[in-house]
Write a structure and sequence with these properties.
4-stranded antiparallel sheet, alpha+beta, binds zinc ion, 10 strands, single chain, 2 domains, N-terminal domain of MutM-like DNA repair proteins, Helicase, Ruva Protein, domain 3, elongated
């Protein structure tokens, strides 16, 4: 599943090739993904120019010149692919966006995902979007911001890191090694952590996501140009390595289920505090 490194990469690529282009039409083949009627989607986007494409947590946001915004979530996974010319367009897709110069992009959801149209004012109202927290690549994600999430709280660290209204962009993939780098058990509670633990955790979040970004994101995900990232299974320390030796101490890595998600950890390096 795409997380911050992959989403930030794709939104950057979209910005690079779509900004300044005019939308000719948006064709919707999976109406349950959109938040307005198909005709309305078409009318509110036709002839608008893409001003900028950014990401907001795990959502991609295309700001249009007429005060509208197209928002795309990957749901459980999606192929979002650019086509420079009509001939290279993937026909099997749920959504197709055509630009006036003949280029465009297609969206194919692996299972299900959202494709919303919101006005500038609507961005502040829609519950999916309005509450999204800063992501660790943003300058707003300071140590002070991060530390404040836990003051006076007794809460499982992993729950906070996956909560998109607290920290956006992290999913159940990169969190495995973030906790390993920090020496924290997946069930670690914030109330028994020292200041130093929070500092290491904050640093680990940034380093882990940066490491993947440098390698072009996850090797199982395609970018906007159909290229796969370079961050593969070998790049994980303990994530998805159940039964293999811990790279630090050799203890066998275990997998447990906590709060509905799988967690991989080294029972020796990641003891509960
Ligand atoms: Zn270990």
């Amino acid at each position: 599943m795409a997380e911050l490194p992959e989403i930030a990469k794709i939104s950057g690529q979209m910005n690079q090739v779509l900004a300044g282009k005019k939308i000719q039409k948006v064709a919707i083949y999976q109406p349950k993904s959109i938040n307005v009627k198909e005709g309305e989607f078409f009318c509110r986007t036709a002839d608008a120019t893409v001003v900028q494409v950014t990401n907001r947590g795990k959502w991609i946001v295309a700001h249009l010149s007429n005060g509208e915004n197209i928002l795309l979530s990957f749901g459980l996974g999606a192929d979002v692919l650019y086509f420079p010319t009509e001939q290279e367009r993937k026909s099997q897709s749920h959504i197709q966006v055509f630009m006036e110069d003949g280029s465009g992009f297609t969206v194919r959801y692996w299972w299900f995902g959202w494709f919303f149209l919101l006005s500038d004012a609507g961005l502040f109202k829609d519950p999916h979007i309005r509450d999204i927290a800063p992501d660790p690549f943003q300058k707003e994600f300071t140590y002070e911001y991060f530390r404040n999430l836990f003051w006076g709280k007794k809460i499982r660290i992993k729950t906070v890191l996956l909560d998109q209204s607290k920290v956006s962009g992290i999913g159940n993939m990169y969190i495995q090694d973030i906790l390993f780098r920090s020496g924290l058990h997946p069930d670690q509670n914030s109330s028994t952590m020292e200041e130093e633990d929070f500092k290491i955790l904050y640093q680990s979040i940034k380093e882990q996501l940066e490491k993947s970004r440098e390698k072009g994101g996850c090797a199982f995900e395609m970018d906007f140009f159909g290229e796969k990232g370079g961050f593969g299974l070998d790049d994980f320390y303990i994530g998805y390595k159940e039964g293999e030796p811990c790279p630090r101490c050799g203890t066998l890595i275990q997998k447990i289920r906590l709060g509905g998600t799988a967690s991989y950890f080294c029972p020796n390096c990641q003891k509960k505090k």
